[in-house]
Amino acid sequence: MASTPQTGSLASLILNPPDSTSVRPRLDSVDALRGLVMVLMALDHARDFFSKDLAFDPTDLDRTYPALFLTRWITHFCAPVFIFLAGTGAFLSTTRGKSRGELSWFLLTRGLWLVLLELTWVRSLGWLFNFDFHFAMGVVIWAIGWSMVALAGLVCLPPRWVATFGIVMIASHNLFDFVEPESWGSFAWLWNFLHTGGIIVPAEGYRFSAG
Length: 211
Prior knowledge:
Layout: H1 10-15, H2 28-50, H3 66-73, H4 78-94, H5 100-127, E1 135-138, H6 140-154, H7 159-172, H8 188-196, E2 198-203, E3 206-210
Parallel strand pairs: 1-3
Antiparallel strand pairs: 2-3
């Protein structure tokens, strides 16, 4: 009889990683959290497309009302959770027998695929409903994709280095808010990508919105 997959806590896996002969656990809590976030994102997108109150920002306290405000406020947690779970999933892959090389290649290819989908399928059939690429944008899926590309390199480092990098990046992020893209000269577009966001003009008549 086939073994029944086991579930466990993330903490127990970190403190007591399974050996290669043990049953590979799957965490129901991670799947449940991922599903909950998807439901919240669906709520946010439904509001964008079907709400009668599209003329103003739902978080504008002078014009909004509680139900509308909450449908937007709660979804601010979605993108960070998606990206956090990408890192969690990468760690869990190592507990299920995947080598660092295999994991790095998976993250690289999956990340680039998400970037491509954001620029094509999501842009044309999910947001703007046209194929006029004079305007394009990179938002949440774009950010998740490039985060996976970065993680493809980070997984090759010792865990303590990865933890140090993550803590420093989070703690120092807002310290660079005073830096303007213009100070980067011809590389202003790179600072738009990495930190500030905004409109980038790669060529005359073309605009890209970095979210």
